[in-house]
Amino acid sequence: MIRIFAIAVLAAAGVALTLPVGAQQGRASPHETVSQQIDGNRVTIIYGRPLAKNRKIWGTLVPYDQPWRTGADEATTLITQMPLKFGETTIPAGVYTLYTVPGEKGGKLAFGKNIGGWGVGVDTKNDQARVDMKRDSVEKPVDQFTIAIDRGAKDVGGGVIKMTWETTQYSVPFTVEKKK
After folding, report:
1. Nearest to residue 34, comparing CAs of 47, 22, 21, 23?
2. Contacts of 9 by beta carbon, 8 Å cutoff, 6+ apart
3. Which of 140, 168, 171 is nearest to 59 (CA)?
4. Number of domains within the chain
């Protein structure tokens, strides 16, 4: 486990170092790393946090049914030390580029095997998997795109990846696959 995590951290650092200097310095959006210990497994997401700036987001700035980088600037990165199960789909331990295909009634969260780069270079033959996301409304508008990794209910375990922006939240639950 420690070895996989060390490789993942080095890969993420390598991605940052390969970016053009201007890309690192000229970011319009702040970047954040969210991390959560879920059932003995560390899940980490590194992403850019664009602001809505009074723009219509879903269906306009971020078109429906089109791949979106799920943040700003470099591709969003997910690191997991252990396999994650999203419904019947298992994502092996490792590092992935996350992108979404938002829709009016739901959407897809995609795990790409090509990591790094600027934006999202979608090539479905390099996807590890795509899983369904649930779409909900939130009461209070969120001006800055936010990703959270929450723990699931005690009786269920696992966790939930939540992406919130404007008045919309996309979410997808997962469990940690234990070694047998």
Report:
1. 47
2. 79
3. 168
4. 1
DSSP string, 123-151: -GGGEEEEEEEEEEEEEEEEEEEEEEEEE
What is the per-residue pLDDT for 120? 64
Q: What is the pLDDT of residues 49-107, one digit of tens each?
A: 999 999 999 999 999 999 999 999 888 999 999 999 999 999 999 999 999 999 999 99
Residue 20 has a CB neighbour count (10 Å cut-off) of 9
Model pTM score? 0.84
Q: Could you give the C-alpha distances from 64 to 70, 102, 118, 135, in angstroms and in order? A: 13, 5, 21, 12
Categorize the per-residue pLDDT at 16 as very low, low, confident or very high, splitting at 50, 70 and 90: very low
Domain that holds residue 121: 2-176
**10 Å Cβ neighbour count for 149?**
19
What's the token pair of residue 23?
């890309």
